[in-house]
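Q: What residues go here?
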């Protein structure tokens, strides 16, 4: 059976250190849905005295009653009916043993805020007046990243300054995908990453004894599988106008990268498009990308989808709903034909994530570069040493002569990059699925890597 907690050692250690501290702890845990927050918390708390409460979008009085009843039942104590969370915590503190640190876990805390806006202020008072001097570990957890960052962690929040720490749960890193899919080669692992990213819940839907295409058929193209409609479910849970946001996301995936283009393709008025994009940025579904050598404050940026599951779903599920309903095999053929092109953009992202391990060269920033009609897939910079690396990334097999041509064109484009032009030390390279005669190219001073080099970083071993 698949292990539930793949490489969550760091997160569990942080929680354990907080638990073992000699002071009360108030920790905020957050991250996108399906990323494994609840599993991490439950694994940490399973052998400790704790109370776990999963909030719902219910009237606040019903939530207080449910909290009271569940706590009383679990610890076999009597609690008086109350209309106030603060009074409820005061009752609880008087009746529980605190010789060992007691853990309160409130999951999906944003649901309580949606039910009753003053909840952050109420929990500020609960912490200040009831819990902060007790042997308590309070954990507030949430999946609505935007709400957690503004209404819980933000400096305008009543809870600002109360927490003793925060933990944002991140997707799994590429080199841990093998633990979910032990029979997959590096190529298949990267194809899977292109479809679902590093989200544990989604990775568990794949079976490494089946091919990548078979897994796509059994998940994205299977109406009974969560991956088939998860994107729409998430948007409906988070947003009031899910169809408008879907139109914006589809416009971006179809190539609209500037506000005016997105507005035109999505049929959202240009005067309103900014507010919709801002919400998608908060949800970490969309991001701005700047040329690597340009300061972030300038306006020369493009919008991109920032979630691989949404990228795949918007590319191959949303546009083909009718075909998936009537003849899913036809969409499978579309994926087979188009996926190498789709993976070209994904491979640029993967290469950026892997470049430090591959080159062993110190640098500070990585990113894409473009200017007018010229574009370089990956540039790595070190302002201190004035070193700059230029890479082209190709999801294909390349021969020696093909690489030389790519490198020649890369050197020509690099001449347009304005960055310490008279002082910099330049490196040039290619990253591809397979490169023939790599050693010959390396002898000529080029940095060339393929999936065999990824394997050496334990990606598939």
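A:
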């Amino acid at each position: 059976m698949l292990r539930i907690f793949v490489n969550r050692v760091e997160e569990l250690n942080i929680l354990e250190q907080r638990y073992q501290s000699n002071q009360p702890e108030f920790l905020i845990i957050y991250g996108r849905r399906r990323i494994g927050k609840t599993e991490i918390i439950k694994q940490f708390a399973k052998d400790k005295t704790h109370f776990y409460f999963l909030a719902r979008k219910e009237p606040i009085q019903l939530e207080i009653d449910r909290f009271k009843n569940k706590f009383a039942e679990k610890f076999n104590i009597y609690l008086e009916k109350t209309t106030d969370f603060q009074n409820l915590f005061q009752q609880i503190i008087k009746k529980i043993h605190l010789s060992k640190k007691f853990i309160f876990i409130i999951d999906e805390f944003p649901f309580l805020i949606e039910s009753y806006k003053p909840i952050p202020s109420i929990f500020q008072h609960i912490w200040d007046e009831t819990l902060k001097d007790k042997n308590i570990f309070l954990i507030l957890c949430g999946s609505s990243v935007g709400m957690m960052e503004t209404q819980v962690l933000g400096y305008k929040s009543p809870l600002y300054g109360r927490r003793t720490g925060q933990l944002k749960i991140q997707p799994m890193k590429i080199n841990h995908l093998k633990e979910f899919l032990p029979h997959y080669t590096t190529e298949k692992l990267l194809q899977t990453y292109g479809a679902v990213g590093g989200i544990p819940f989604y990775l568990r839907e794949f079976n490494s004894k089946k091919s990548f295409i078979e897994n796509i058929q059994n998940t994205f193209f299977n109406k009974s599988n969560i991956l088939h409609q998860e994107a729409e479910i998430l948007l409906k849970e988070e947003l009031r106008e899910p169809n408008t946001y879907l139109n914006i996301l589809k416009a971006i995936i179809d190539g609209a990268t500037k506000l005016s283009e997105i507005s035109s393709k999505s049929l959202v008025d240009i005067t309103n498009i900014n507010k919709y994009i801002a919400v998608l940025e908060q949800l970490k579904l969309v991001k701005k990308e700047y040329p690597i050598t340009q300061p972030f404050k300038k306006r020369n940026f493009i919008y991109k989808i920032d979630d691989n599951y949404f990228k795949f779903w918007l590319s191959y599920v949303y546009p083909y709903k009718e075909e998936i309903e009537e003849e899913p095999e036809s969409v499978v053929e579309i994926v087979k034909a188009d996926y190498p092109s789709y993976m070209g953009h994904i491979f640029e992202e993967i290469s950026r994530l892997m470049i430090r391990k591959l080159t062993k060269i110190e640098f500070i920033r990585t990113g894409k570069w473009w200017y007018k009609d010229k574009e370089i897939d990956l540039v790595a910079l070190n302002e201190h040493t004035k070193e700059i690396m230029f890479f082209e990334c190709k999801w294909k097999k390349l021969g020696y002569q093909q690489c030389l041509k790519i490198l020649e064109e890369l050197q020509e484009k690099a001449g347009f990059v304005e960055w310490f032009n008279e002082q910099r030390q330049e490196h040039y390279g290619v990253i591809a699925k397979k490169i023939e005669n790599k050693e010959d190219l390396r002898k000529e001073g080029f940095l060339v890597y393929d999936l065999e080099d990824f394997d050496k970083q334990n990606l598939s071993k």
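A: Context that may help when evaluating the design: Residues 328-359 form the longest helix (32 residues). The chain has four domains: 9-168, 176-220, 222-316, 347-455.
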